Amino acid sequence: MPVLRWLRRHLIVIAGLLTLAYMILPNIVVMVFSFNKPNGRFNYSWQRFSLDAWKDPCGVADMCGSLSLSLQIAVWATVGATVLGTMIAFALVRYRFRARGAINSLIFLPMAMPEVVMAASLLTLFLNMGAQLGFWTILIAHIMFCLSFVVTAVKARVMSMDPRLEEAARDLYAGPVQTFVRVTLPIAAPGIAAGALLAFALSFDDFIITNFNAGSTVTFPMFVWGSAQRGTPVQINVIGTAMFIIAVLVVLVGQLIANRRKNARP
Amino acid sequence: MSLTKEAPPAPATEPEVRKPSTRRRLVPYWLLLPGILWLVVFFALPLVYQASTSVQTGSLEKGFEVTWHFQTYWDALTDYYPQFIRSLLYAGTATILCLLLGYPLAYLIAFKAGRWRNLVLVLVIAPFFTSFLIRTLAWKTILADGGAVVDALNTLHVLDVTSWLGWTENNRVLATPMAVVCGLTYNFLPFMILPLYTSLERIDGRLHEAAGDLYATPATTFRKVTFPLSMPGVVSGTLLTFIPASGDYVNAELLGSTDTKMVGSVIQSQFLRVLDYPTAAALSFILMAVVLVMVTVYIRRSGTEDLV
C-alpha cells in the first residue's frame, strides 16, 4: 500500500503537525468566537456572526481597567526582573566566587516550585508583616518569580560570549563603563531581550500567584477567571485574539531584524 | 565597533594597583546583592514563615500561635489524600502525554523543519501570549456536549471505552478527569517542547549518518543514539511539566467537576476562603516536599547548570 508507506515515512512530521494543531486549536476557537453574538451570558456555543465586540472592545465594565493594570504591572515587573536578573547572570558567568552553588540553587528553586506553594508562602509573609495587598504586593511577587527565568535566559547568552572581545576593548583603552556599554551590552542584548520578553509574558499571564496576593485588586487574568463564573463577554475573545496577533507580529519583526543583521554582517 | 575614536590617548600614570583589585573582587557580590536579597526576602523567608504557620494552632479571631502542633500534617493528609493522589496522577499522566506529543514536534523542529524552523517555533511560542485562562476556557467550547469532538468520539465508541475506564462519564467529556488531563497536557506542552528542542538541536546530525553507515535502522538509530542524547531535555522537560502541573488548580476548576479537584484547589480555598492557615500551610509543605525530592533526584542526575 503506497499510502501506508507514505504515512510510515512521514510519521514524525505528521505526528508533529498534529501536536502543533492541538496547540493552536484553542487560539483559533478564541478567534472565531470573537465574532460570535451569543445568546445569554456565556459565549460557549456559536450563534451568529457579529462585529459588535470588535467595534466596542472596552464595552464591558472593568475589563479594560484590569487590562491596563496588568500591562502596568507587567512593564514594571519586566524592568525590575530584567535589571536584577541581568546583574545576577553576569556575576554568575563572569566571576568565580564562593557560594556560587548555593546561589545557583536559589535561582533554580523558584522555577521548580509549584506556583501555589510560592503564592501561599508569600501570602503568609505579607499577612505577618501586615502589608496592604494590592499593586505593590503583586509587583513584588511578579519580580520574584520572573527573576529566575531572566537569569537563565541571560546566562545562556553571556556564556556563549567571547571574553576576549572585552579584553580587546580594554586594550584599546576603553574604560570599564565604556567597555560595558559599547561592547558587552550590545552582545548580550538578545539574551536580555529574550529574558525581558519572557518576564513580560509570565507576569502578564500569571493567575495563581496574583490570585493569592492581590487582595481586592483585579488584574486581567483575574477578570477572566471571575467572568468564567459570571458569564464570559465576547470582548475577552477580542483581547485574546489581539494579544495573539500582536505576539506573532512582535516575534516576526524580531526575526526580520535578526536576519537583516546577520545579512548585513558578512 | 568604533571604539578607537573615543579611546583616551593613554592613561597618564598607572594608579595604585592594589585598590582596584580588592574592589574588583567585590564586584560579583555587588552585582548579586539586590537580586539575591529579593529572592531571600520574598522567596526563601516566606517559606520559613510558612513552615512556622504550619505548626501553629488558633483561629482567626483569637490569633495563631506556634504550638509545634505537627498533628496538622497528619490531619491534612488523612483529609485530603484523594486530592493529593489525584494531583500526582493527573500531573503524571499529563507529563507522559506531553512527552509523547511533544517529542515528535521537537524532533520535527530540530531536524525536519529546514527553513520553516523559525515559523514553527513562533507557532509553538505564540499561543503562550493569549492569556492561558482564555485558551483554557476555549477548551470548554471544544469539548462541549454535542460539539464536534464529543460527537466524533461517541460515534467511534471511544467514550464507551473511556467511560468504562472511569476517565469520562455518561458519554460526555467536560467535567471529567479526561477533560482535566487534556487541559493540563495542553497548557504545559510548551514547557516540554522547548527543552526537548534545545537538547535535540545540540545533537550533531552526522551522528545519524554514522549510525546509518553502520547499518542501524532508523528505529535503532533513534533508540541508541538520538533518544539517549536528548535525555537532558527529557529530564528537564519532565520536571518543568510535572511540577507546575501538580500544583495547578485552574484546569481542574475550569474543565473538571467537584470529583476532579486537585490539591492546589484545596490549598487555595483553605487559604483564601476557609482561612485555616495552618492546614493550608501544611498542605503546601507536603506538596513542596514531594516536589523537592524529585528536584533533588534531577539535580543529582544532570546538575543545575544546563537546565532549559
Quick overview of this protein structure:
With 266 residues, chain A is mainly α.
Q: Low-confidence spans of chain B: pLDDT under 50, at least 5 residues?
A: 1-7, 12-18, 304-308
Radius of gyration of chain A: 23 Å
Largest sheet of chain A: none
Q: Helix share of residues of chain B?
A: over 70%
Sheet/helix structural class of chain B: mainly alpha
Which key features would you list for this structure?
heterodimer, A: 266 residues, globular, B: 308 residues, mainly alpha, 73% helix, 3% strand, disordered C terminus
Characterize the structure shown.
The complex is a heterodimer of chains A (266) and B (308). By secondary structure, chain A is mostly helical. Chain A is 76% helix and 0% strand. Chain B has 308 residues and is an all-alpha fold. In chain B, 73% of the residues lie in helices and 3% in strands. Chain B has helices at residues 3-6, 18-54, 71-112, 117-125, 132-142, 148-155, 158-165, 177-201, 205-213, 218-229, 231-247, 250-255, 263-274, 277-302; strands at residues 56-59, 63-66. Chain B has a two-stranded antiparallel sheet. In chain B, strand 1 (56-59) and strand 2 form a beta hairpin. In chain B, helix 3 (71-112) packs across helix 11. The longest helix of chain B has 42 residues, at 71-112. At the A-B interface, helix 2, helix 4, helix 5, helix 6 and helix 7 of A face helix 1, helix 2, helix 3, helix 4 and helix 5 of B.
